[in-house]
Design brief:
heterodimer; A: 114 residues; mainly beta; seven-stranded mixed sheet; four-stranded antiparallel sheet; globular; B: 112 residues; six-stranded mixed sheet; five-stranded antiparallel sheet; 0% helix
């Protein structure tokens, strides 16, 4: 039973560039949430996708956008990268959007901005 | 802005010791409280999802309690083992259907 997979594992970009991170949810899950974890902080919610639509969004600028595909996999896109975007980006999947469902996390993508 | 606090930030215990740490959250409009264990170089793993005041959950040597009226949850580890070394995260959901809010975690190191 495949768990949540994220790619790439690590990524180095420079300021102003654009990046795309990818996530495949756990088998049977239909909801994908993205989190940003900066150093010394807890995971911060970016947005959640269900039925190929953004259902909820955290306090992140429009530079952060996403997509969910018919197979439930998801992408996170960040444009005009800033130094402050350096962080670990976690993807989590669940069955439905109900918050009593546990989140299943991937290993994350470590993004470094130079 | 919902505030979820975890304490202590980190602790070191000897193998065999029992330990506990706290997650504090707003005491109004409670919906759910999650606990996750996050080992280094791995992904966060769900431990418990708690929804009712007075809930007690147990998984092996790890247990958790919930007090929604005063806004806190305790996570207990009995007879700590080196493999319990990890960061323990809690996440709070309120009845306003806002996303889960995570604390910064408690980093536990168990010394053999």
């Amino acid at each position: 039973d495949a768990g949540v997979t994220q790619s790439p594992t690590h990524l180095i970009k420079t300021r102003g560039q654009q990046v795309t991170l990818r996530c495949s949810p756990k088998s049977g899950h239909d909801t994908v949430s993205w989190y940003q974890q900066a150093l010394g902080q807890g995971p911060q919610f970016i947005f959640q996708y269900y039925e190929e639509e953004e259902r909820q969004r955290g306090n992140f600028p429009d530079r952060f956008s996403g997509h969910q595909f018919p197979n439930y996999s998801s992408e996170l896109n960040v444009n005009a990268l800033l130094l402050g975007d350096s962080a670990l980006y976690l993807c989590a999947s669940s069955l439905g959007t109900v918050r009593t469902q546990p989140q299943h996390f991937g290993d994350g993508t470590r993004l470094s901005i130079l | 802005i919902l505030n979820v606090e975890q304490s202590p930030q980190s602790l070191h215990v000897q193998e065999g010791d029992s330990t506990n740490f706290t997650c504090s959250f707003p005491s109004s409009n409670f919906y759910a409280l999650h606990w996750y264990r996050w080992e280094t170089a791995k992904s966060p793993e769900a431990l418990f999802v708690m929804t009712l005041n007075g809930d007690e959950k147990k998984k092996g040597r790890i247990s958790a309690t919930l007090n929604t009226k005063e806004g806190y949850s305790y996570l207990y580890i009995k007879g700590s083992q080196p493999e319990d070394s990890a960061t323990y995260l809690c996440a709070f959901g309120n009845s306003g259907n806002t996303p889960l809010v995570f604390g910064k975690g408690t980093r536990l190191s168990v010394i053999a």
